[in-house]
Amino acid sequence: MDWKRLVQFALLGSSNLEQYAILLVRVSLGLFFAISGANKLFVAGGTKPVYETLVQAKVPFPHQTAYFVAGVEFVGGSLVTVGFLSSPACVALLIDMTVATLTSAVSTVPKGLLPLSWLDDFLYLPEVLYVLFFIWLIGSGPGKFSVDYWLAGKLRS
Q1: What gap in Å lies between CA 66 and CA 136, rounded to an integer?
Q2: Residue 65 pLDDT exceeds 80
Q3: Per-residue pLDDT, 123
Q4: Which of 76, 103, 122, 125 would give a disulfide with 89, using CB separation of 3.0 to 4.6 Å?
């Protein structure tokens, strides 16, 4: 057994596996948002919870905004899934999740917590994790197993 390689892997990971990690995160996250958006758009009453949340948060034009948000999730999630226009789609979904965090999710964190406890509860919110994943995908790119990678290769030729 090559202990040096094992220790290097434990400390640095493996760039050989990086593309598979990007693929797994991109497809999983994309499917989650595409399915969530589709359920809001194409299932009867699907936008109702979004609408009610928007009304409670006093967002202007809640009916139209509910459909807009659902459309962003469906289209953006579909694009992220296949890796086409990934960065713009990630930016749109990042904005969507940032607004969701600020208008709704943060209010679920109990009041009066010590700063570290508040931060713990805040970082536990799924919307915060989605934002972090989108930032990572924007920085890393969609990976080799994406339409964007294929198109970029065609542009270089």
Answers
A1: 27
A2: yes
A3: 94
A4: 76
Q: How far is CA 17 from the centre of its chain?
A: 21
Residue 131 half-sphere exposure toward CB, CA atoms < 13 A: 16
Burial 5-38 (b: 16+ CB within 10 A, else e): eeeeeeeeeeeeeeeeebbebbbebbebbbeebb
Q: Which tens digit of pLDDT belongs to each residue from 74-116? A: 999 999 999 999 999 999 999 999 999 988 888 889 999 999 9
Q: What is the pLDDT of residue 15?
A: 84
- Predicted TM-score (pTM) of the model is 0.89
Distance CA 106, CA 55 (A): 16
